[in-house]
## 1
Amino acid sequence: MEKKTKVFGTASIDYHVNGEIPELLILSGMHGDEIGVDKSVWDAVIKYEQNLPPFLFIPSVSPSATNLKTRINKDGVDINRNFFDDSKIEEARAVMEIVKNLRLNTMINFHEDPEYMDFYFYDGFGINIEGTSTLSALRQGVKQLGIGLLNGVDDPSDKALGYEFINGYRYFSPSSLKKNKYGMFGTWACSKRIINRSIVPEVPGRLPQPMKDRLVRLVFEKLLIS
Ligand SMILES: [Zn+2]
């Protein structure tokens, strides 16, 4: 991996590139109160570096949120509601600068859910994998770790969310990609055709760190390594 840095105003974002033309974008560290999963993702990227397709990895999308250990960054905002071309949030602008000329198959953006003990993931704008052996194998692996699969709604209190999951999975068709109303990275990047597919795994934040590590490794193995 080659380490690079993008500066925009006072924001400075480190990223790592493996391969000539990245096909996969790996993100973590959007929210500073989800740092357990950030460590799991770092470890998995290093472990699977040679097995993954060419990739670009941004380990900390919002370094100021990570430093503050809060969901909001130094500007007092959730960065994942501020991905607009004319965003006033310098960290968001730096991240958009890093990826703006790329054409990637898949983006995976790891988060933690502070509340639920069950795993779930959003799968947007690509192909619906419900009923496939890929999804079955992932679900089976999650169960083997002793972790549940969410049947319910994330997050009923957030107007940008409120989606129902069945056995840990929620698919969004390309036609559901209207405009980038809420400034989420995935909808911004898909609307720009920078990415074709947006995967957002939500790792239960209350799991012990070794379980987070195992769950993230499983997601890499089942969804990213073909
Ligand atoms: Zn998050």
## 2
Amino acid sequence: MAAVSSMSRISGLCRHAVRQTAALKSPRLLQRRSFRVTAVQQQQQPFDSSLEKPQFPGASAEFVDHLEFIQPNVIAGIPVYRVMDRQGKIINPSEDPQLSKETVLNFYQKMTLLNTMDRILYESQRQGRISFYMTNYGEEGTHIGSAAALESNDLVFGQYREAGVLMYRGFPLDLFMAQCYANADDLGKGRQMPVHYGCKDLHFVTISSPLATQIPQAVGAAYALKRENMNRAVICYFGEGAASEGDAHAGFNFSATLECPLIFFCRNNGYAISTPTNEQYRGDGIAARGPGYGMLSIRVDGNDVFAVYNATKEARRRAVAENQPFLIEAMTYRIGHHSTSDDSSAYRSVDEVNYWDKQDHPISRLRHYMTARGWWSEDDERSWRKQSRKTVMEAFERAERRLKPNPELLFTDVYQEMVPRLAKQRESLFRHIQQYKEHYPLDLYEK
Ligand SMILES: Cc1ncc(C[n+]2csc(CCOP(=O)(O)OP(=O)(O)O)c2C)c(N)n1
């Protein structure tokens, strides 16, 4: 038996070698290999060993003759870039992105529509109509400002609290609802928890729950786009909590060394569930990490949609033109609970939440800006709120009435042909459903 298995291993290796040789002959692969070789050759420098300075390949610096540790606060107090003050007044006119009235109204309508959708879906969960939900309250400016600054075919890797980015790209309310209700129209066929959206047509990669996995994935995608010379960028969203994961380090370092057209967009909203930022990290936030990786970085006021827009637009332009990653840390505040499984009154005060809700909210700031220009009145506000609420309610009612996906779909789309293990599970599921059919309302599912 041992001889047989080692023979089959050898023949497996031979087949592998043949495949590799064939692959090397493919012109496409040859081109890619030469891309890598050229990149290495370009970096070769003449080696001058006569210089009286450190020759270590891993550092470029002078020698010193006194012992001194670098202070952790060497990068501290990174300023927060903003365009508008809290009353929506432009601070420095040269930073005003001068967006048209139509564009600004679209920003506002998307931000408020997201807020309305959140309220209705949050309530749906409280009433037991959906299993779970996560609101985006207070972070609307980070979503819309960044989404508007991208090209529509740039690839988005989100964490889970970026529904506004997808909304800005045109994902319809019906599909948001279909995903949360896991009904037959859901693009994910009802297999994911609510808020785990994804849309291939809108270049929005499906959300996955394990934190920070999107970071190295985004780097790989950006590297691929660079190699294909696509003139496209990748944006990768994550929270300041996710930035503590090892995957964030791997992603930052790979993106810098591989020189990827990528924007790391950190939503620093003050909390990772119940962990406040002062327990999450010791340095000056996430932006301070950029220089350590050799990355251009900026901190912006995430509640100022224009500041987010300007920073993302410039980062996007340079990321593609110069093939290098950028790190944007958008300072904001998570006004809602972490999710419907959380009660944030256990770890933060009502006064703190009220401050952000009433005095420093991205939606009210933009509204002040529009009102000052005579672009938005009380009447506009009333009729828009009424109309948008009606649109959301109608989508919600349609989603609730819709059938659930055929249970057969639980077993599809992973393997091209069903493997025996899965066939066995399928058989046992349907036997179970048959036996206890009074507990399974199959008439609510598509046949
Ligand atoms: C690897 C991993 N660890 C823990 C969790 C549980 N978890 C889900 S969300 C979350 C907090 C993340 O906070 P942050 O990245 O700041 O994003 P925010 O929720 O504030 O938007 C945690 C710990 C998880 N999903 N995955």
